[in-house]
Amino acid sequence: MRTELSLLAAAVVIAVGGFVAPDWLSFLLTLAFAKALVVLGVVVQMRMGLVTFGQALFYALGGYAAGMAMQHLGVRDAFVLLGIGVVVSAGFAAICGLLLARYRDIFFAMLTMALSMVLFGVLVKSSALGSTDGFNVSLPTYLGWEPSPESAKGVIFLLTVAVSAVAAIAFHRLLKSGLGLIAEAVRENEVRVEYLGISPRSAIYANYIFAAGISALGGGLTALATGHIDPDMAVWTTSGEFVFIAILGGTGHVAAPFVAAIVFAAVRTFAIQESPHTWQLTLGAVLLILIIFLPKGLWSLVSKRRKQTTETPVSNTAKVNA
């Protein structure tokens, strides 16, 4: 409960800060939070000992499903569009998961990347979906209310913060649930899990579908925020970016992906601004330094601080007793 209240408080502070922050900062945070949702899907699988290089598959499915529903079905409500993206992605994951749940290690990673690249190839070759250029997405409505063009970006920012808060709380509860505890047990020893009468494949299958749904939310929010969708959402380098952010933040807390996504977006924006021709080198160097000195991720700084705070009163009590 304490963690959930902290997440809600942080969401309120960020939402209020969005009203006074410059537009570029609100937009940066919107995209960072949307990508953090996809990273949550990556972390779900990392906690089971599985690394996916194809999470961009569901990121793209969420975005394209929302965009196509708006363009071809005339659906404009943001909540319905996001829901369509989640349903499409979860349904696709339910089919693919039947195969992927059988594999582990590098085989799982390569198969997920292969599925993502299949979608990338289909999108690139499909002229009806704009081929390599993609297509634009109009501004959505919200339960019948249509904001003005000037306030549309701010509304999407608030929507992204709200969805991120709900998703973070759901993710936290998942980790504390039986399925979340089984996931860690599967990572440590699948054989012992089977001796308990629990199927590791079923646990992996369920987590894979959850990861797909939460990643689709990130793709749908990105499409609504940028107003554009293109096949690069499904390319393998996008999946690699999500894995990189997951490693950068660590898996120790539900807030870690959001902190890492913000740091990643800020560093990349600064690198592009200061060295537009060598920004990849600057970005890589900075992030490499962070990973070398913080191998357990950025959240390890918070964990270490909490550990020191907890140990200090214990040490003082021991000295008094002595």
From TrEMBL:
One of its GO terms (cellular component) is plasma membrane. GO terms for molecular function: branched-chain amino acid transmembrane transporter activity. The keyword Hydrolase does not apply. The chain crosses the membrane at residues 27-44, 56-73, 79-100, 107-131, 151-171, 242-267, 279-299. Pfam families: BPD_transp_2 (PF02653). Keywords: Cell membrane, Membrane, Transmembrane, Transmembrane helix. It is a multi-pass membrane protein. It is found in: Cell membrane. InterPro entries: ABC_transp_permease (IPR001851), LivM-like (IPR043428). Its main location: membrane. This is Amino acid/amide ABC transporter membrane protein 2 (HAAT family).
